[in-house]
Amino acid sequence: MRLLVTGGAGFIGANFVHSTVAEHPEDTVTVLDSLTYAGSAEALAPLGDAATLVVGDITDAPLVDELVAGADAVVHFAAETHVDNSLADPSAFVTSNLVGTFTVLEAVRRRGVRLHHVSTDEVYGDLPLEDPTVRFTADTPYNPSSPYAATKAGSDLLVRAWVRSYGVAATLSNCSNNFGPYQHVEKFIPRQITNLLTGRRAKLYGTGANVRDWIHVADHNTAVRAILAGGRVGQTYLIGADCQRSNLDVLRTLLGIMGRDPDDFDHVSDRAGHDLRYAIDPTALRDELGWAPVHTDFAAALAATVHWYRDNEAWWAPLKDAVEAGYAKRGQ
Ligand SMILES: NC(=O)c1ccc[n+]([C@@H]2O[C@H](COP(=O)([O-])OP(=O)(O)OC[C@H]3O[C@@H](n4cnc5c(N)ncnc54)[C@H](O)[C@@H]3O)[C@@H](O)[C@H]2O)c1
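Structure for dTDP-glucose 4,6-dehydratase, as requested:
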């Protein structure tokens, strides 16, 4: 397959490109990424010529059209992704997530190319903390809280409409919170790890009661690959690994892995409109496509992630001070 991977220099996209090159050498991979602050050409550098990086924007219609014309399938990861940034200034989220997805859709429509659209469980809003057995399914109504989630929800609806109205061959997936190598240091888990590695203290929003459903990025990507290969056109697949943890629990696990006292952190002001709990019911994906996560020992996968950040300081260190300055400005 000739794959066009949008956002392939970001966290999940770069991991997808790495695993595709390693496990599907028969594929050719072209990455389209505008290298925003979240994109990293260095994340693809270890692959050498095995993947081609085109630096460009998904809102650039002629460029997207040209690249889509040379592809058998598009895996669409590119997006603005950080909730805190969307609260501070939502404009780039509307442009990249909505106009960008529209541009990709028009190109795949014109060229008759298969599309997989990567989205998030945040489109569903949040769940009450009390009953962990209540989880999102593909039938859960959309109820986004943040500008990030609202623009991802809008992009999903565009994809569904292009399937229905124009017969575009697209699948969608909504995944829970990812962790693993190459995640930007602004995000919760890498922020804590790199705070501790740089002599700063770990930081927890509010009381840390908010619950996220964690999945290792490699498991997310095997699910994307399974959907690309066997998913039904027009279908939405929810991806999750049955790993609900409160932020406090995750932080204490990390502190333990890194040899710190479980209370060795600061509470910082909570995120506006902070969603209480996300949880995915992945039964449909497991039953229909036979997918299952393999990184199911959360503490072990977290320890491996800590090792990766320890070993790859040259990748993240140049980003760290600016990210912490931004958080400090917001009192976080
Ligand atoms: N991180 C998670 O936990 C998570 C969970 C579920 C779904 N998702 C979805 O997965 C996708 C990838 O997320 P991520 O965490 O890797 O994000 P990321 O922020 O690490 O990477 C996004 C990439 O997209 C690129 N990009 C942004 N705007 C662009 C534009 N206009 N044109 C071209 N490239 C552009 C950036 O340069 C960056 O390389 C997103 O669509 C996100 O909504 C993420």
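The mean pLDDT is 97.
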